[in-house]
UniProtKB/TrEMBL annotation:
<dbReference type="Pfam" id="PF16113">
    <property type="entry name" value="ECH_2"/>
</dbReference>
<dbReference type="GO" id="GO:0006574">
    <property type="term" value="P:L-valine catabolic process"/>
</dbReference>
<dbReference type="GO" id="GO:0003860">
    <property type="term" value="F:3-hydroxyisobutyryl-CoA hydrolase activity"/>
</dbReference>
<feature type="domain" description="Enoyl-CoA hydratase/isomerase">
    <location>
        <begin position="43"/>
        <end position="368"/>
    </location>
</feature>
<keyword id="KW-0378">Hydrolase</keyword>
<dbReference type="InterPro" id="IPR032259">
    <property type="entry name" value="HIBYL-CoA-H"/>
</dbReference>
<protein>
    <recommendedName>
        <fullName>3-hydroxyisobutyryl-CoA hydrolase</fullName>
        <ecNumber>3.1.2.4</ecNumber>
    </recommendedName>
</protein>
<dbReference type="InterPro" id="IPR029045">
    <property type="entry name" value="ClpP/crotonase-like_dom_sf"/>
</dbReference>
<dbReference type="InterPro" id="IPR045004">
    <property type="entry name" value="ECH_dom"/>
</dbReference>
Amino acid sequence: MSIIVRIAPKEATATKIGSTGVLMAPHDDILFSEIPGKKGNLGEITLNRPKALNALTGDMCRRLHEQLLGWESDRTIKAVVIKGAGDRAFCAGGDIRTLYMNGKEHLQTAQKFFYDEYRMNAAIFHFKKPYIALLDGITMGGGAGVSVHGSHRVATEQLLFAMPETAIGFFPDVGAGYFLSRCKNNMGYYLGLTGDRIGAGDAKWLGLVNHVIPSEKQDALIEALASAPFSSEDHRQVTDIITEFSIELEPLLFNQKTLIESCFAAESVEAIVSRLEERNEEWSKTVLETLLSKSPTSLKVTYEHLTRASAMDFNAIMETEFNIALQFLKTPDFFEGIRAVIIDKDQSPKWQPMKLEEVTSERVASYFMKKAQLNMTTV
């Protein structure tokens, strides 16, 4: 069995060697290494907070962004691979527990986190070289932001994908307006509003990932990518290499495709609720109960965002999401949702307001007022 050799990238200041043999920078929540290969090296990113399910901090977002810019201009790097440490998660999202602790007293800290995270998402979207994300295990929220925007999204059979933000009084962000609004059969509205969890088969069917491979083949795939003589412009050969490892899994949501498409094609959140009530069957009752447990404000803002985003380009969506996020930070539902779900775990958030009909169109419109710019051209 061959061994993958990793070296520290030129941009990093390596200070110690971890148990995996990877050279680490001083802050080892995120690791960068280079795997020597034919016609160029692979840049490798490891999200290294396994005890926190590899949740993203602001520092991790900034450093990933900086490293990508360096690798993009480095002619010795032919492609980039990103993965999560441990066997439970690729990335469970942003570190919202820390965001809660800091944000309530220091709003600018929370604002800076979203600024850095969204700029990183944009850097991934615009990255010209092959960017291969290995989605093995839990991939939620911010985890989608560091994977779905890349050129090659590779899930394993262990994938558990969700955009659960409406449960914490927020909205599907990190560029979700782009990929959810473009999902077939109104599935993006369904996933964004309910926060439902899906597996690799559904993610592949919806185009959120390009490939599914067995979890135990990840190292073999990385080795194959390193040893293959492709250039940084040759995305097709990367696709062909991944295809050799690919397997097919059944999309379970496909069985509810007609119901979801019908119910979530409604012209408002209230109309979606009405259609679910009219169905009066086990599936629709479960979805209705889930939907009505979410923040009413989050539901209406999410619906409006996905509707608008379907006709917007990526950069415009990211700037819109930045402004929406800033508005959520000024309102009570976001911090109340984190308290109820993450901090106290009583699962009983007190939303303000509590009812859908109390969320006026004027209130929703206030989330889409442009008050800040998101600079996506420089670090």
